[in-house]
Known about the structure:
Blueprint: H1 6-11, E1 18-23, E2 29-35, H2 38-47, H3 53-61, E3 64-69, H4 73-87, E4 103-106, E5 114-117, E6 126-128, H5 134-147, H6 159-163, H7 171-174, H8 188-202, H9 207-222, H10 226-241, E7 256-263, E8 267-276, E9 279-289, H11 296-310, E10 317-319, E11 331-333, H12 338-365, H13 367-381, E12 390-399, E13 402-412, E14 415-416, E15 422-425, H14 434-451, E16 459-463, H15 466-478, E17 486-490, E18 496-499, E19 502-507, H16 513-547, H17 554-564, H18 567-572, H19 575-582, H20 584-596
Parallel strand pairs: 7-10, 10-11, 12-16, 16-17
Antiparallel strand pairs: 1-2, 1-3, 4-5, 4-6, 7-8, 8-9, 12-13, 13-14, 13-15, 17-18, 18-19
Pfam families: GIY-YIG, HHH_5, UvrC_RNaseH, UvrC_RNaseH_dom
Domain UVR: 207-242
Protein name: UvrABC system protein C
Amino acid sequence: MDKPTLDIQLKTLPNAPGVYQYYDAEGTILYVGKAKNLKKRVSSYFTKVHENGKTRVLVKKIANIKHIVVDTETDALLLENNLIKKYQPRYNVMLKDDKSYPWICIKNERFPRVFSTRRVIKDGSEYFGPYTSMKTVSTLLDLIKGLYSLRTCNYHLSEAKIESGKYKVCLEYHLGNCKGACEGLETEKEYNENVKAIKELLKGNFKDSLSQFKSQMKQFAEDMQFEEAQKIKEKIEILENYQARSTIVNPKISNVDVFSITSDESYGYINFLQLSYGSIIRSHTLEIKKRLDESDQELLELAITEIRQRFNSKSKEIYVPFKIDLGQNLKVTIPKLGDKKHILDLSLRNAKYYRMERFKQIKITDPDRHVNRIMAQMKADLRLSEEPRHIECFDNSNIQGTNPVAACVVFKDGKPSKKDYRHFNIKTVVGPDDFASMEEVVYRRYKRLLEEEQPLPQLIVIDGGKGQLSSALKSLEELNLRGKIAIVGIAKRLEELFYPNDPIPLYLDKKSETLKVIQQLRNEAHRFGIEHHRNRRSKSALNTELETIPGVGEKTIVVLLKHFKSVKRIANAKLDELETVIGVSRAEKIYNYYHKK
């Protein structure tokens, strides 16, 4: 498919947080930015008058826009940082330096130290973060220090060196901040229990830590140490408000390719996220046209080979949503839980957004293709013998049996054809009988179409269950049309479609476009019918009393209502007021009627 123009790309951007990338005509990356709402932020570049000359030059050079959708604004900030450091775009000034976001490191050693760092070293140590604020890191480290006694020295505490008495306790031990592991005053098992609790806290599992804090606060309060209790209370509040680490970057997920797929009857959309050293460094979505009826598995296997060759990926592990066969050299993981699953879900979101944008772009540039796709989808979903290019939907409207009416709305090529809508006042049915009313209007509608030699629809939709469907079928049989036009009934819950002579309803996917068209049909029929019913009821209620006055006709009533706005005001009007509007003779009749009454 041809690349959409810049104007169409702007119209189809999602209203979601993410990172956008601007490219020039040669494909060189110009700028990377983050946004809470991609559509609003990117559109602002092309709608505002920019005072900054550099921004004006940038906007003139933009030829293509790419974007990656993420969960939150914080995720967007972190991803923006990674992409700017990787690509060094010409128009990005901030974040180009080598300074990275802070992490909390639990060192891979006996009696592990816990400290902040901006460098992630692959030595088996565990890293938590990154954090967007050093203040958050300091707060967490202070909390950890307040809860657990940990060493801060950088001694190599091997078992042999401790036993030989090489080290002596320092001031931290005497201050109560360390339990003296260097002299063997604390066991490795006891120390590691504390480290395990710290890991849980850093992962966002605060339950145990909060419980411990609250016990401390309570103890301080009982001991009348209110200042200390207040300090603990503030730490509890900070801890409760603190959000767990971002899901965009996780150092445990390193040098991995992530693939996901969404598809329709014509195309497959495969998203690729490339992770390097725990950071997303690339996102790309590939669109593949189906030649036959290929499965998602076949499309994904084909796309993975193509994408990895195109981007020269050397990753030995890939994450995918289901089992695929790619030979023996690759480790294939199907994540079910945790951060790995979250990354896979993020990839799928990007694939779905890309598909939605393509639909919007096609709708603008090639409306015929969009309509053809929906018609083919409806034909398949509704088990029809031909595409439902012309659909008619019927709905009855009556309230407490008064003014019974029916509506017929017409959709052509999946869109309302309002000039073909028709109202029906029920003529042959007495009282509120939906079944008989449906039988009457269906018969009248198609008898007229046959007499006038007008084209018949490919599909009739009846708003109602089996009863209304049976009534409509009687009329079609009478007109010798049964079997020539497909007909379905919609139950109240909308997901159920009833077919003639089939006791088991068809359930449509709530997200399917077929259901959306049928919902729109039913809503239009309901709206159109209710509107006509209200008009009849209002006219009847307004005119009834005035029409009973001898010598007062319809034209006089219209003139009076236009002037006085309501029947009540007409009844309370003075004689001279009525005379100025409708003359002496008729004014006296109306005035006398209400005042004698």
